[in-house]
Protein: MarR family transcriptional regulator
Organism: Natronomonas aquatica
Amino acid sequence: MVVSNGDRGEIGTVADVLRKRAPLLELLADGPRNQRDLRDELGVSRSTVYKSLQELTEADLVTERAGGYVLTGFGRLAWQRHDEYVARLHRLDTGRRVIETLPEDRQFPPSLFERGRIVVPGRHAPERPFDRLSEAGSRADRLRIVSPSGMPRLLADLHENVEADEQNATVVLEADAVSRLRSAYDRFAAAAAADGLELRRIDGELAFAVVLFDDEEIGLFGYDTGVLIGAVFAEDDDALAWGERVFDRSLERSVEV
C-alpha cells in the first residue's frame, strides 16, 4: 500500500496508476465489480485484471469487499480529480488553435478554456463563431467590445438594436478597422452618432478580440494575420474579471470616433 506523506515520488506513482488503469477505474466508479465482470467488460485476460487490481490496491485506490472490488474513499476522490483533469486537457486541446494565436507574453485565465465553449469555423460553416456571437449578443442588454476587426455584420446588428432601444454598446476598434467600417457600412455616420452606441478608436494593433455580454459572459476571438481562427465563450468569474481588465485598459487608451 502507498502511504503518502506528500512525497512527490509517491504522488507520482498514484498519478501513473490512475492514468494507466483508467478504463478499470471508470467501471468501478459505477459500482462494485468482481474479477470476472471486469474481465468481460474490459475484454482482457485474467492476468491483466489481476495485475491491475494489485496495482490499484497497493496504491490504496481500490479494496476488495463482499460485493467485489470497490474504490476506496481516497480512490473515488482521486479518480474524480483525475477524470476532471483529463477533461480539462481535452478542452485545452480542442482550443489549441485559438490558444496558439494569443500572445505568449500575456496571461490568460486557464478557466476560460477549461470551462468555456470552443467555437471554430467549419468547412461548411465558416461563420460559426460569429453566429455564436450574434446568439449571445441577442440576449444581452449591454455589450462591451474591443476588437482588431470591424465586424460589419455586428455593427449593423448593434445599430439596429440600439435604435430600437433594446441594447447599448461600447465598441473599441483599431483605427484601420474603423476606416474599413466607414466604407463597408453605409449607415456608419448614423451609428457613430446614435445614443447608446459608443464607437471608439485605438492606435496600434490589438492581438485578439474580447466581447463582454452584460456581466455574465465573455467571448474571446483569436486571429492569425487578420483571419479569425476561432473563439471561446465562458460564464466564469475569473474569465469575466480578466476580460473587464482588458476592456478597461483599451478603453482608457481610446478616443471617440
In short: The chain is about 50% helix and 20% strand. The mean pLDDT is 92.
